[in-house]
Amino acid sequence: MNRFLQQIYFDNTVQSYLIEIGIILLALLFKRFLSKYIAGLLFKLIAKAGGTFQKKSFCDLVVQPLDSFLVLFISFVALDNLNFPSALDFKVFKITSRTIVESFANGLLIIVFIWLCLRLVDFIAMVLEEKANATKDQTDNQLIVFFKDFFKVLILIIGILLILRFSFNKNIGNLLTGLSIVGAALALATRESLENLIASFIIFFDKPFVTGDMVKVLNFSGTVEKIGLRSTRIRTESKTYITVPNKQMVDSVLDNITLCTQRKIDIRLEIGLNTSLDNLEKLAAALKGLLNNFTAIESSAVYFIETGKNAHIYTIEYFTKIEQTIEEFYEDKEQINLAILTLLKTMQIQLAATATNINLHNASQ
After folding, report:
1. Is the pLDDT of residue 204 over 50?
2. Contact (Cβ atoms closer than 8 angstroms) between residue 237 and residue 276
3. How far apart are CA 322 and CA 344, in angstroms?
4. Quick one: which of 110, 88, 113 has its CA closest to 101?
5. Could you tell me if 57 and 123 are in contact, meaning their C-beta atoms sit under 8 angstroms apart?
6. 8 or 291, which is more confident?
7. Which residue of 51, 166, 311, 312 sits 20 to 30 Å from the alpha carbon of 21, by its own alpha carbon?
8. Residue 323: CB partners within 8 Å, gap ≥ 6?
9. Could you give the 3-state DSSP secondary structure of residue 316?
10. What angle do CA 294, 295, 299 make, to 5 degrees?
11. pLDDT confidence of 185, banded at 50, 70, 90?
12. Chain segment 300-325, per-residue pLDDT in tens
């Protein structure tokens, strides 16, 4: 038996193969136990931040990438104890097969590790979002989404640099120096994207609007659903989903409807010229009394602003409560318009368009 174990195949004894295979099999058998144990330790560290989140939620996020990382790490460490078979040692474009295998292993480990880091960022964002939901201010939620995306991009960039360093043996310092020149050229080429990125920081710190606000910009009205690094997503009143570059959100005139204290409605009422002076005087008082009967109206004004050859013109201004939903607002507006028409009919006052008379005369022969 001992003689069999000491036999050499591909520059390694059978005993060495069995030991390394046994280590890998143990890693496969106990990977879930080990990953859950390590996940529990990580959870205790993160749980100090507070919150009512469950340990299961954390494990669901990190156990899978942690499984893969542990199995790969233990397998590569075990296989590293074996001698690389000379029969498989060859060169491809002056690069040895051993170097290719090591570079592939390093790259795979880095990818799985970055995957794990991204999952940790997701969980930390969940913790912070839970705290932010406990406050009325939506700015916290907005910042969490922004920095979650920001740190994910940063981690991916670090991952790419690590792969270049450990898989391709590139000097990151020299690479960053070279990239700085390339970056300057790219900054000029992607100036618009860079401007949108800067505009996103302006939005977060100047706070002209936050997620959940109803805004009007570029002839579109809708609710802000997400503010990203490059653009802002808005759900319009017609339920379409539009994407507006952050630079335009900053540079354009933006009306934050949510911050309005009242909603203003203007009505231009054109009365027929055949209306008597007495009815004109009574109409102003009647319109004011009519508007006072609507509880949704907080303030109102009626003015007889103009008269001429076509019509007597009244202007009606009133402000409604901002607490109303948009459906309630339009319903009240409809009722007010109908009430005004009913009042005119009761007072036997015609609008200018309905009071127009056309007289035809025969030309004298």
Report:
1. yes
2. no
3. 29
4. 88
5. yes
6. 291
7. 166
8. none
9. strand
10. 85
11. low
12. 899 888 887 788 899 999 898 877 77
Token pair of 331 as six digits: 């319903």
Place of tokens 């354009």: 252
Q: In 3D, which of 343, 360, 359, 358 has the Cα closest to residue 271?
A: 343
User: In whole angstroms, what separates CA 335 from the centre of its chain?
Assistant: 38
Reading the block at residue 79, the tokens are 């296989």
Distance CA 336, CA 4 (A): 100
Separation of alpha carbons 116 and 146, rounded Å = 20
Q: 88: which 2 tokens? A: 């498989």
Residues pairing with 92 in the sheet: 95
Distance of CA 61 to the CA centre of its chain: 21
Which of 260, 268, 237 is closest to 324 using CA atoms? Answer: 260
- Mapping DSSP onto H, E and C, the string for 125-141 reads HHHHHHHHHCCCCCHHH
Q: Report how far residue 196's alpha carbon sits from residue 245's, in angstroms, rounded to the nearest whole number.
A: 6
pLDDT tens-place string over residues 55-67:
777 777 788 888 8
Q: How many C-beta neighbours within 10 Å does residue 56 have? A: 9
Q: 25 is written with which tokens?
A: 């099999």
Q: Which tokens go with 33?
A: 């136990």
Which amino acid would we find at residue 332? D
- With 0.70 as the threshold, say if the pTM is over it: no
Backbone angles phi, psi at 236, to 5 degrees: -75, 170
Distance CA 62, CA 58 (A): 6
The tokens describing 122, both together, are 């997701």
